[in-house]
Specification:
Layout: E1 5-12, H1 15-18, H2 25-34, E2 38-46, H3 50-61, E3 66-70, H4 81-89, E4 93-95, H5 97-109, E5 123-125, E6 129-131, E7 140-145, E8 148-153, H6 157-168, E9 178-186, H7 190-197, H8 201-204, E10 209-213, E11 217-225, H9 229-244, E12 248-251, H10 256-267, E13 271-275, H11 281-287, E14 296-301, H12 305-312, H13 316-322, H14 327-338, E15 344-350, E16 365-371, E17 376-382, H15 387-407
Parallel strand pairs: 1-2, 1-3, 3-8, 13-14, 13-15
Antiparallel strand pairs: 4-5, 6-7, 7-8, 9-11, 9-12, 10-11, 15-16, 16-17
Helix pairs in contact: 2-6, 3-4, 10-15
Length: 409
């Protein structure tokens, strides 16, 4: 039976509770830990308070095998993670001479004299193992609290990942012991994927599959462990790919825009977009892919009807009869995109909200059209949610429609 060890994550930082900052380190840690058989079962954000950190650590260590604490290891007065964990363990902090010398040398190389407060980064919890941080200044620390391993890591993502991959994952049996493969799907909802793959759980185990949903993109993360992990993963890939069918656009790190660009490249076609309610989000995704300029020629972002007429050649009569948010307008915009010097055109027009809707065309109504030399497709969507949600869904579902249209030709 495929079983995970239990892990928890504590993100330290008052800014994540009171300002517009979001914890992303827990997502990074979760992906890394999956490779060696840990499942992240709980995460918390706590303020920069030693007592709050101590309570969170004690509670989580009592019911998990591993607690990862991120942030609060810097030099300032509000960096109190070391103090909080030491309080939870009932031990003290010791200033580590080798760390002091390393810190002084780092400051000298930068042409600076080390301030006294920066020496706090050389304070180590009694009994802790020091985890060197080649990407930054504050090292990580590894201790044991009751039966749980407890890891203190910097809050800077690249530093956290460096310490994880260099010092922790190898000792926890990651790599060869755990194999992971991600199947990437688009144009489908999480619930639809769950319904289709659930019959495979009896064969492979529910714990070996994770479904990660985006806004029009879903990842199926498949995991296998043991001496026959490669063969097991290949068997899973075959079974889940068959169920995914045409929704599957790639594996691993392949993105939907990258898959579209590759399809265009294989056919020797250029691509252009025409966008209204998404304001250039589709073009931004496509051009985020390195090397996209050999396929993508440009985009017209046209909110005003006059601009749709002038730049995309949408007939005024069509706009007056059907409106800017309609199948007819979307198709005309796609044809206009072809006029930019492309063989492939994608158009998006809709009502992102919060205002502008009507009984016939409520907020969230989006029309998408995709055209190639050999095919043309249109879809009408009705997305729930706020403006950001509608725009992101419209972008991803439009790109999916384009992918499917390209595959037909």
């Amino acid at each position: 039976m495929f079983t995970f060890r239990r892990a928890a994550f504590v993100a330290v930082g008052s800014e994540m509770l009171r300002a517009d900052r979001v914890d992303t380190n827990s997502l990074l840690a979760s992906r890394l830990l999956q490779r060696c058989g840990y499942a992240l079962v709980e995460k918390r954000c706590v303020e920069d308070d030693a007592g709050a950190i101590a309570r969170a650590v004690r509670e989580l260590a009592a019911r998990t095998d591993l607690v990862v604490v991120s942030g609060g290891l810097g030099p300032t007065a509000d960096d109190v993670t070391r103090e909080g964990v030491a309080q939870a363990m009932g031990v003290g902090l010791l200033r580590h001479d080798a760390l002091v010398k390393a810190l002084e040398a780092r400051y000298r190389r930068a042409g600076r004299t080390i301030p006294e407060i920066a020496l706090r980064m050389a304070d180590v919890i009694e009994g802790a193992e020091i985890l060197p941080n080649p990407q930054g200044t504050a090292p990580g620390q590894l201790v044991t609290l009751d039966a749980a391993a407890l890891v203190l890591l910097p809050g800077v993502p690249r530093e956290l990942e460096e310490i994880f991959t260099t010092h922790l994952l190898p000792r926890w049996g990651c790599g060869a012991a755990m194999k992971v493969r991600t199947l990437r799907l688009s144009g489908v909802y999480e619930s639809q994927v769950e319904e289709r793959v659930s019959p495979l759980y009896d064969r492979f185990g529910r714990e070996a599959v994770t479904i990660l949903a985006g806004r029009g993109v879903v990842d199926l993360v498949l995991m296998a462990r043991g001496d026959h992990a490669d063969a097991r993963l290949a068997e899973m890939d075959e079974a889940f790919s068959a169920v995914a069918g045409d929704d599957l656009f790639g594996r691993g790190e392949v993105t939907l825009p990258a898959a579209i660009l590759m399809l265009c490249r294989e056919r020797g076609w250029k691509l252009a977009t025409a966008e209204s309610c998404t304001g250039g989000l589709a073009a931004a995704q496509l051009t985020s892919v390195a090397g996209s300029s050999d396929v993508f020629v440009g985009s017209v972002v046209a909110y005003a009807n006059e601009l749709k007429e002038e730049r995309l050649g949408v007939p005024r009569r069509l706009l007056e009869e059907h409106g800017a948010v309609s199948q007819e307008t979307a198709e005309a915009m796609a044809r206009g995109a072809l006029g930019l010097g492309a063989q492939v055109g994608l158009a998006i027009t809709g009502i992102a909200g919060p205002g502008g809707g009507s009984e016939d065309k409520p907020v969230g109504t989006v029309h998408v059209a995709a055209m190639t030399p050999n095919a043309a497709r249109h879809r009408r969507f009705r997305f729930p949610g706020d403006r950001t949600f509608v725009r992101e869904c419209a972008t991803n579902y439009a790109l999916d429609l384009l992918r499917r249209t390209l595959r037909e030709t």
